[in-house]
Amino acid sequence: MTDRYASFVQSGAGRAVAKRLGLPDPPRLRRYSPGDPLLPGPALVGAAEDGRLAESVTKILTFAGVEPRDPAAGTTAADGTPQRYGALVYDATGITDSTGLRQLYDFFHPHARSVLPSGRVIVLGTPPAECSTPREATAQRALEGLTRSIGKEFGRGVTAQLVYVTRDGGDRPDGDDLSAGTLTSLESTLRFLLSGRSAYVSGQVVRIGAGTAAAPADWNRPLDGQVVLVTGAARGIGAALAKVLARDGAQVVALDVPAAGDALAAVANEIGGTAVQLDLTAPEAPTRLAEHLAGRHGRVDVVVHNAGITRDRTLGRMDADRWDQVIDVNLSSQERINDVLLERGLIPAGGRIVGVSSIAGIAGNRGQTNYATSKAGVIGLVDSLAPALREHGISVNAVAPGFIETRLTARIPLMLREAGRRMNSMAQGGLPVDVAETIGWLAWPASGAVSGNVVRVCGQSLLGA
Ligand code: NAD
Q1: Whether residue 361 has its Cβ less than 6 Å from ligand 1
Q2: What is the CATH number of the domain that holds 147?
Q3: Are residue 269 and residue 176 in the same domain, yes or no?
Q4: Over the stretch 6-47, which tens digit does the pLDDT of each residue have?
Q5: Looking at the structure, do residues 242 and 203 belong to the same domain, yes or no?
Q6: Pocket test for ligand 1, best of 256, 378, 457 (most atoms within 8 A of CB)
Q7: Number of folded domains that form the chain
Q8: Taking burial as the number of CB atoms within 10 A of a residue's CB, which of 32, 149, 341, 416 is the most buried?
Q9: Which member of 85, 90, 200, 371 is catalytic?
Q10: Is 161 a member of any domain?
Q11: What integer is the mean pLDDT of 429-435?
């Protein structure tokens, strides 16, 4: 589905009209193509006194082809023009009490207008639960207010995120050195958040814990050789997902209902994957799927539970069938499939489970009690399963899409649809590929220490914020 208003405003004449009338001005977002540089300009890298991550971050950026700059270099370029940056990255781990928060102002204030369109702001902190004192925990928690506000303030497609990096598992007794898995996942996370892959992700808090992670031989093919199952792959987000994962090197097993067989075959053929026609709610579905995966591949490295349905009615008007179907497709079938795949040892160490929730599961939505219940359940599944599977080296995460331009949202009445599209920091709906890229990052072998996260792909929607 196309957003005609955004196309109009992105034309020169349209922009002038929108500006004169004070209408929303959706920016053209920077989206990823293989081989793109990570950023459109250098990154300014700053750190609070005694920050423990700036050195690692500088190394990661340099290795990824980004030029890190020091704040001491000032605000003007060599030719006297104001210096522009592709990203501002700040290591705030050294902030140990509220008075230290002043260092944030000192870093960001002089450079607040220097970020290029679709640039990035990333603040790194220590998870408050791991802080040594209540004051340190308070200051680290405060970082969230800064990043979420920057996401709303900077505009022009600039995103802002907070990344909490564990102190656990370090090699030194004080825990200040990162373990190899945490460091690799910090790299995978920075590569995702800085790149155009994260175009529609903003205002998020990502937690990187201790865990094992494997860097790819080629960061342009971060899923090389991985066997990935995508449910609901015949169309919409699932079809985009199958294509993105295959582009990144995965062998994709694309699953959908038999009625969607033709569309599913087209997706599978396009990407050289295989198609499985199966209704996930059928009683024999988990065992049939397990047998297929065992027979064809001997394992499944990544399971993406994307299939989902809506059967909207206000609660008083909802028949029991609508309730049951939605809970079964969107939640219970995922649990049954996880159970069988795990019992049979088909998800190996280093495996990934990624669920698709929704901002309706966070904020609730009128007419969607069944859907929001199922999608909040997906978050519950992440919360309960991630700690249980950590010792097996399997990560569990979910994405929570906001307004994404698909058939599902095309059915929303016009005025509601316009409101849904514009009520976010990007003033536009996201694309299926934005959700797909985010799931891709969570699926990478390099992201193993990213577990237990629910990452919204919603352009920083006001709903559930
Ligand atoms: P879609 O309806 O276009 O695609 C869903 C796919 O799942 C379809 O191909 C369908 O055939 C398949 N499916 C449904 N029931 C199935 C079953 N029992 N067995 C196997 N396959 C089944 O939807 P979409 O917009 O691409 O959404 C994908 C996921 O993203 C869903 O979980 C949805 O709830 C979630 N989501 C979408 C949006 C959005 O704005 N589009 C927002 C939030 C969350």
Answers
A1: no
A2: 3.40.50.720
A3: no
A4: 776 677 766 666 666 666 789 999 999 999 999 999 999 999
A5: no
A6: 256
A7: 2
A8: 341
A9: 371
A10: yes
A11: 97
Which residues, other chains included, contact 263 with Cβ-Cβ below 8 Å and sequence gap of 6+?
234, 235, 239, 256
State whether 124 and 250 are in the same domain. no
Nearest to 40 by CA among 117, 114, 102: 117
Q: Are residues 192 and 250 in the same domain?
A: no
Stretch 69-89: mean pLDDT:
89
- Predicted local distance difference test score (pLDDT) of residue 14: 65
Read off the pTM.
0.95
Query: Which residue owns the Cα nearest ligand 1 atom 32?
Result: 308
Q: Where do we find the tokens 């990052």?
A: 441
Pocket lining: 232 vs ligand 1, CB cutoff 6 Å: yes
Check whether residue 104 and residue 234 sit in a common domain: no
The atom number, within ligand 1, closest to the CA of 329 reads 18
Strand partners, 276: 255
Handedness of CA 190, 237, 319, 411 (dihedral sign): positive
- pLDDT the model gives residue 67: 96
Domain boundaries, position 387: 227-457
Helix, strand, coil abundance in the chain, percent, nearest 5: 45, 15, 40
Same domain, 233 and 203: no
144: left (phi over 0), alpha (psi -120 to 50) or beta: alpha
Which residue matches tokens 């072998």?
445
10 occurs within a structural domain: no
Q: Is residue 327 part of a domain?
A: yes
Last residue of a domain, one of 208, 236, 255: 208
Q: Quote the pLDDT of residue 465.
A: 74
Is pLDDT of 173 > 60? no
Percentage of the residues of the chain whose pLDDT score is greater than 70: 95
Same domain? 141 vs 245: no
Q: How far is CA 402 from the centre of its chain?
A: 12
- Look at residue 14 and tell me if it is in a domain: no
